[in-house]
Amino acid sequence: MSPNGGHGIYGAEAAARHHFGKSAEDLTIDEAAWLAAILPSPRRYDPLRKTTFLTRRHERILKWIDRQSATPVPIADEEMH
Predict the structure, then answer these.
(1) Is 29 exposed, middle or buried, given 0-12, 13-18 or 19+ CB atoms closer than 10 A?
(2) CA 79/CA 29 separation, integer angstroms
(3) CA 43, CA 68: separation in Å to the nearest integer?
(4) Taking a C-beta distance cutoff of 8 angstroms, is the pair 33, 58 a contact?
(5) Which of 18, 43, 42, 47 is nearest to 32 (CA)?
(6) What predicted TM-score, i.e. pTM, was given to this entire model?
(7) pLDDT digits (tens, 9 = 90+) for 2-41
């Protein structure tokens, strides 16, 4: 994460580029779930610094996505990032 701590980052595209170095269109489901997990406070949380709170929230989001889709979504290993 840049030294500005996420300040001035607005929107999914800017967040994808800031945190993952790619377009929002190119995010994996796992990466998109990490971005969604920081939404309670994007200035406070960083998806690359995985706290217990963010990890639990990320897993709940992936489970919700899985229930909404016909294809199961695997919960990726944190070390893949």
Answers:
(1) middle
(2) 16
(3) 28
(4) yes
(5) 47
(6) 0.67
(7) 434 456 778 889 999 998 999 999 999 999 999 998 887 7
